[in-house]
């Protein structure tokens, strides 16, 4: 939802006049689509059909790459916001997109941490850490 907010807020402005926003659009839309694909994969448990793929590792790498890409998108988006813009509504939407890009960046960073824990087998949530073998 947060990634959707980023590219929607940019898309309703005249982003094509500033090439920096094209990078933000590329990152946000690409990662939004890939995140939706991972979500659907886990929702329908399709990862169980492809058991040879190390899914915790794949998810950790995806989240790490997404974090790095969103860092660049956040910095680009925040640097391109012009407070003296003659279109006040463009400024407001771009500033909001910068804020949400920062939130998405932090969210992917936290997901990377939990994916790393799941990959290392340290338990990704409270339910899996409470299971003991007897």
TrEMBL record:
<keyword id="KW-1003">Cell membrane</keyword>
<comment type="similarity">
    <text>Belongs to the MAL family.</text>
</comment>
<feature type="transmembrane region" description="Helical">
    <location>
        <begin position="20"/>
        <end position="44"/>
    </location>
</feature>
<protein>
    <recommendedName>
        <fullName>Plasmolipin</fullName>
    </recommendedName>
</protein>
<dbReference type="GO" id="GO:0043209">
    <property type="term" value="C:myelin sheath"/>
</dbReference>
<dbReference type="InterPro" id="IPR008253">
    <property type="entry name" value="Marvel"/>
</dbReference>
<keyword id="KW-0472">Membrane</keyword>
<dbReference type="Pfam" id="PF01284">
    <property type="entry name" value="MARVEL"/>
</dbReference>
<comment type="subunit">
    <text>Forms oligomers.</text>
</comment>
<keyword id="KW-1133">Transmembrane helix</keyword>
<keyword id="KW-0812">Transmembrane</keyword>
<dbReference type="InterPro" id="IPR013295">
    <property type="entry name" value="MAL"/>
</dbReference>
<feature type="domain" description="MARVEL">
    <location>
        <begin position="1"/>
        <end position="120"/>
    </location>
</feature>
<dbReference type="GO" id="GO:0042552">
    <property type="term" value="P:myelination"/>
</dbReference>
<dbReference type="InterPro" id="IPR050578">
    <property type="entry name" value="MARVEL-CKLF_proteins"/>
</dbReference>
<dbReference type="GO" id="GO:0019911">
    <property type="term" value="F:structural constituent of myelin sheath"/>
</dbReference>
<feature type="transmembrane region" description="Helical">
    <location>
        <begin position="56"/>
        <end position="81"/>
    </location>
</feature>
<dbReference type="GO" id="GO:0016324">
    <property type="term" value="C:apical plasma membrane"/>
</dbReference>
<feature type="transmembrane region" description="Helical">
    <location>
        <begin position="96"/>
        <end position="116"/>
    </location>
</feature>
């Amino acid at each position: 939802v947060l990634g959707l907010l980023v590219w929607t807020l940019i898309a309703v402005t005249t982003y094509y006049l500033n090439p920096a926003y094209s990078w933000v659009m590329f990152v946000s839309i690409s990662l939004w689509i890939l995140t939706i694909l991972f979500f659907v994969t886990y929702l329908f448990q399709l990862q169980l059909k492809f058991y040879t793929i190390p899914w915790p590792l794949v998810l950790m790498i995806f989240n790490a790459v997404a974090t790095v890409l969103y860092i660049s998108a956040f910095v680009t988006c925040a640097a391109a916001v012009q407070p003296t813009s003659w279109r006040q509504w463009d400024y407001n939407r771009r500033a909001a997109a910068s804020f949400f890009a920062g939130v998405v960046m932090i969210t992917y960073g936290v997901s990377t941490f939990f994916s790393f824990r799941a990959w290392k087998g340290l338990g990704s949530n409270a339910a899996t850490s409470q299971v003991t073998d007897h």
